[in-house]
Amino acid sequence: MSFFSWVIIFVKWKQYKEVDADNRKFERQFARSDKIADSLGQAKSSAKSPMSKIYLAGYNELLELKELANQGGAMQTSSRSITEEDYELVEMAMERSLSEEISVLEERVIFLASTANSAPFIGLLGTVVGIMDAFWAIGERGSASLAVVAPGIAEALLATIVGLSAAIPAVIAFNWASNKVKNMNEFSNNFILEFIAKAKKENR
């Protein structure tokens, strides 16, 4: 459990570092752009950025709604403008994409929580078994000398140490990962609001 926890910690640290870098890069470019379409190239090049995927979901939905609004027969003299209901559809598409990206970021993090919760109890089980061994040794030899009880007590303490050495890093890593995902979720929600606001300014 400790080995797999450390593997997950390393993988998540690397993943979140890349995600943060790509998100910041895309966010700066989007903030500088005058139009939503200006960020399309940056979004396609920022493959590891959840924000760029959220942007693409909103951009594609907005593009489809514009095409639907502008299409019509020969009798149609003017195109329909984008409505508030349309912007709600765009926002829902972006939120759906955000939910998918959060699920990707949370993958395997639950194992850290399982390790943090179960490893101390597994260690406690080993502690109980070690103490039972010490008492059995006392019963068999009829002596409570240090030479008789020391091996069992040592095994018990070792089991406790192993359980805690697996649980403590897992607890710290789980809290760290949960906080990173929470911050990314808030960051992305703010971006969705910024995207919708910019879209309304362009189409009013």
Summarize it.
By secondary structure, the chain is an all-alpha fold. It is built from six helices and no strands.
Unreliable sequence segments = 73-78
List the domain count as a whole number: 1
Shape: rod-shaped
Task: Give the rounded overall mean pLDDT.
Answer: 85
Tally the beta strands.
0
Task: Please give the share of residues in helix.
Answer: over 70%
Order of helices and strands: HHHHHH
Characterise this structure:
This protein is 84% helix and 0% strand. The protein is built from six helices and no strands. It has 204 residues and is an all-alpha fold. The chain is rod-shaped and about 95 Å long. α1 packs antiparallel against α5 (109-141) and α5 runs antiparallel to α6 (146-203). It has one domain. The model is unreliable at 73-78 (pLDDT under 50).
Keywords:
204 residues; 6 helices; mainly alpha; 0% strand; single chain; rod-shaped; 84% helix
Ordered list of secondary-structure elements with their pairings:
Blueprint: H1 2-32, H2 40-45, H3 50-70, H4 84-105, H5 109-141, H6 146-203
